């Protein structure tokens, strides 16, 4: 790590702390040559392999951008999108993989998006699960109805009455 003040090629770590989210480490450093102090933040790299074979760093902003399109006209805030992107990144990092296909990220978005907004989920799922007919939409809607909390309560009540 080069010193930002004198460009000396070495520095000494004075203090290390994990960040609030636990995904990065904040280090206070001191240059042995000029004595200047500075902070660095270290994170494990997470790379995405695009369909074209190009590898690029994971971006929460790209997750938000893709989901934002599915949420157009829905009651979803930018804060909701930021939380969703963070949730997706955390779940991907928990796999322990440093490189993953772009399609895997799309699939990792589905469950948190489903919990956020079902209409946006259907829009997004139609792309990432490659819906190609009305039957695909009908099956997804039927599954949403089965999994809906109100439907679960109605099924439980019906089974008690039987």
UniProtKB/TrEMBL annotation:
It holds the Pfam family ATP-cone. Residues 7-20 have a biased composition (Basic and acidic residues). PANTHER family: TRANSCRIPTIONAL REPRESSOR NRDR. Binds 1 zinc ion. Residues 46-136 form the ATP-cone domain. Signal peptide: none annotated. Negatively regulates transcription of bacterial ribonucleotide reductase nrd genes and operons by binding to NrdR-boxes. Its cofactor is Zn(2+). InterPro entries: ATP-cone_dom, NrdR-like_N, RNR_NrdR-like. PROSITE patterns: ATP_CONE. Keywords: ATP-binding, DNA-binding, Metal-binding, Nucleotide-binding, Repressor, Transcription, Transcription regulation, Zinc, Zinc-finger. Residues 1-20 are annotated as: Disordered. Belongs to the NrdR family. A zinc finger (unnamed) spans 3-34. It comes from Microbacterium marmarense. This is Transcriptional repressor NrdR.
């Amino acid at each position: 790590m080069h010193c930002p003040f004198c460009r000396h090629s070495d520095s000494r770590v004075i203090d290390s702390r994990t960040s609030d989210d636990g995904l990065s480490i904040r280090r206070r450093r001191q240059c042995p040559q000029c004595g200047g102090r500075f902070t660095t933040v270290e994170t494990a790299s997470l790379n995405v392999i695009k369909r074209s074979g190009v590898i690029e760093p994971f971006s929460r902003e790209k997750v938000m951008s893709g989901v934002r399109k599915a949420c157009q006209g829905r009651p979803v805030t930018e804060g909701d999108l930021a939380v969703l992107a963070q949730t997706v990144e955390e779940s991907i990092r928990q796999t322990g993989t440093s490189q993953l296909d772009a399609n895997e990220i799309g699939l990792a978005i589905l469950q948190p998006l489903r919990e956020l907004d079902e209409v946006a989920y259907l829009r997004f799922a139609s792309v990432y699960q490659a819906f190609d007919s009305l039957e695909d939409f009908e099956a997804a809607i039927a599954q949403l109805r089965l999994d809906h909390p109100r439907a679960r309560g109605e099924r439980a009540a019906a089974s008690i009455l039987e």
